[in-house]
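Limitations

Structures in this collection are predictions, not experimental determinations, and the ligand pose is part of the prediction. Treat each record accordingly. The example that follows, with zinc ion as the small molecule, is included so readers can see exactly what is and is not provided: the inputs are given verbatim, and the output is the predicted complex.
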Amino acid sequence: MLKKTIMENTILGLHHITAIADDAQRNYNFYTKVLGLRLVKKTVNFDDPGTYHFYFGDEAGSPGTILTFFPWEGIGKGYTGTGMATDIGYSVAKDSLGFWSDRFKQFNVKQEQIQERFGEQYLSFQDPDGLKLDLIITANEDNRKGWETNDVKADVATKGFHNITLTLKNVTPTATILTDILGYKLLKQEGNRYRFITDAVDNANVVDMIEAPNLAPGRGAAGTNHHVAFRVKDDNILMNFREKIASKGFGITPKIDRDYFFSLYFREPGGVLFELATDNPGFTRDEPLNELGTSLKLPKQYENNRKQIEETLPVLS
Ligand code: ZN
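Predicted complex:
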């Protein structure tokens, strides 16, 4: 019983990653059609309801599979640098990288040669806004089932996240947050890349950090990551972490209701915006599983302005 309590009162790897795009239709086409993810929720940015908020994931939008975007049309390209998450890693099945390389050629997706690090083969590519992603054959077998489309069958589909990479001037202060607060430990180092892992879950449990003391800070706009959300079971545990983080002297938001999860945000000392997000209530709170992502969902404070919001948002085809 004691062990169970300890395991539950912990960070369960990644919950979601949020990035910035420019054109909404192009973003939607790339992630659903080329990459074969499921649009599990189509809503608006709660702080800017004239902008979509897309959530792409597996069938249910399980924590650890969710990549979300704010498509701010006309924002223009940002660039990566220190103080941000710079690379998103998806887990894929063994022998699937050939399929993906051919598919990326077919759709003119910018990609690199297959490479290896920490004993894992991976294929790096960029989305249409220049956001960097990797498909990785993970050292430990990943039993999660990916979303299947006509073109991307389950045997090659992405299974959810493997890792996120943060690029930092100095890894030490961020590493301290990961080990002392979030329950990660250093697994390996290769050159200036440090790999941290949590044993609390089997997947989406890796954070890589690159130390780049001479690299300039990045600029957040299209093609860059906005924040990284870590997963907790529920809002009681969320509030335990709030106390823990505040007691170390970091500024942290109150609990925020994001309709599909509850959140806290704090900026870690390396400059990356971290969020903690709960499993509850999940994406089926306002749509049944088989209809996820099919209609525009608004938080209740904007429901009265639905008509105006729908007229402002770009029409998706
Ligand atoms: Zn978030």
